[in-house]
Amino acid sequence: MEILRVKVKPNSKQQQIEQQPDGSLTVHLKSPPVDGKANKELIKLLSDRFHIPKSHITIKSGLLSKNKWVELDR
Which of 23, 41, 49, 65 could form an S-S bond across to 31 if both were Cys, CB 3.0 to 4.6 Å? Predict the structure, then answer.
């Protein structure tokens, strides 16, 4: 199990995941932060990046925030 610090930037022109020097991730999402759309897109992107099922990714805190703690169950 791994916990990541993720900063989300919704409404970006293109999807992108950037690794920061401190080990955290900055994720640029196309979706707006409305009705959980950005969170769903975040989970899908992380699933593709780490090659794990979406069901193994949980947003532990920050559901309504740009700064999130995400748990990956590998």
Answer: 41
CA 28 vs. chain centroid, Å, equals 9
How far apart CA 12 and CA 32 sit, in angstroms, is 9
Find the Cα–Cα–Cα–Cα dihedral 8, 11, 14, 18, rounded to 10°: -20
At residue 71, the pLDDT reads: 98
- List, in sequence order, every beta strand (DSSP E) within the chain: 2-9, 16-19, 25-28, 57-61, 67-72
Closest C-alpha among 45, 48, 52, 6 to residue 29: 45
pTM: 0.94
